[in-house]
Amino acid sequence: MMRLFRSLGLVMAAACAVTPAFADTVGGVVAPADAGASGFPAFLQLLAARARGEGVREQTIRDVISGMTFDPDVVRHDRSQPGGPPSSIPRFEPYRRTHVDAGRIDRGRAMLASVGPLATTVETRYGVPASVVLAIWGHETNYGRFTGTYDLPRSIASLAYEGRRRELFSAEFVALLKMIDRGVPRSRLLGSWAGAFGNPQFLPSVYLRVAQDADGDGIADIWTSRPDTLASIANYFRDAGWRRGEPWGFSVTVPAGYVHGSLATALSSPRCPQVFMRHSRWRTMAEWRALGFAPARGTWPDDRIQATLFEPDGPGHPAYLLTGNYRVILDYNCSNFYALSVGLLADEISR
């Protein structure tokens, strides 16, 4: 299932972005409260045995788990996340105003200018526009301004012990130990309560899979290195199926005679069904043009590109045609609000 939907969409983008405004994201079932943390030391030994079996050095295991205690705070955060289908879908426009704001746009443009030729290098190697990469960075940590202060090994072990997503976080704990074995300093392992870290807010397994050493210093530094950060995000997108040269989508004018809902999808996606059910059926750009749709600005992309129609706030409000690359943004965080605002921020950064 796309690597457990890329570790549950980076565990909902590390839950840094999961707020009531994300009511169309994947929900979870809250587990009963654990009776206590008395079994945590024994559980750590189970994690240690698993890590040992996967080749993690004994010294690394001892250094990390020695003296570690359960963190009830991360479990409270986890259980406070909204779950299940929303009773009503909030409007996108208020969310857009706070996430595609002047500050993020200005900082994104300044960052694009400051990285200079690096932007072209990343685009050429990975096929992902630098503006999209920067938009992810801007959304996740406001270009590195806040990357989290929780001790990652303790957070991830506590989430594994709590049990709601035990296998996921047990695997992430072992992956974190492997990072240390690869030379990542223990002092850098701070992040969100949900176990994500660095400028892109990767989970440990994602770091091991896609993080890049673009500056050639021997370590994939997604904490302080701009080249490594940009290349790592771009590599994530390439790995998730980004199509070179294809837009993520664009705003369109809806023809007066269009019958809203006439192209509603009859399919139910096994992944993020509440997100995808709001998109229309797929049609080619040529078919959308024949129906009377038109880009709100710019020109049509290739006629053969397929897209779905999405009207986040309903008829009479901005509408968008979304390509397969929009689905790649959803792979990072399966929320229409998140993905749409990333695309719009990218557009503003590149203007």
UniProtKB/TrEMBL annotation:
Gene Ontology molecular function, alphabetical: peptidoglycan lytic transglycosylase activity
Keyword field contains Signal: yes
Entry keywords, A to Z: Signal
Domain Transglycosylase SLT: residue ranges: 40-347
UniProt organism field: Novosphingobium nitrogenifigens DSM 19370
Region Disordered, annotated ranges: 73-93
Protein's recorded name: Lytic murein transglycosylase
Any single Pfam family the record assigns to this protein: SLT_2
GO annotation, biological process: peptidoglycan catabolic process
Signal peptide limits: 1-23
